[in-house]
Specification:
single chain; alpha+beta; two-stranded parallel sheet
């Protein structure tokens, strides 16, 4: 219970910080029919660059929904990947 409250509060503070510097956080549900790759390419078409923060990235390669997009567009895409669970990273 304490861990869940910590995660909730950490997420809330992170979102507040990101909003204060001009970023918006959007969650896409796991069962959504939203095509994230199309969204990323449309963003690039309009803005020409993309900077991202991916939380829950596992190792950043296997089963990562944006890994290939990042590789294909590495000259205009940059970001950070973060995996908060140490067991997954090792």
């Amino acid at each position: 219970m304490v861990y869940n409250n910590f995660i909730f509060n950490a997420k809330k503070h992170l979102i507040t910080i990101l909003h204060s510097i001009g970023f918006r956080v959007h969650r896409v549900g796991r069962y959504s029919i939203f095509n994230f790759e199309i969204f990323l390419y449309r963003h690039l078409a309009v803005h020409k660059t993309l900077t991202f923060l991916q939380i829950g990235s596992n190792d950043g390669i296997m089963n990562d929904p944006i890994y290939q997009f990042n590789i294909d567009n590495r000259s205009v895409v940059s970001g950070f990947i973060l995996e908060p669970l140490a067991d997954i990273n090792n």
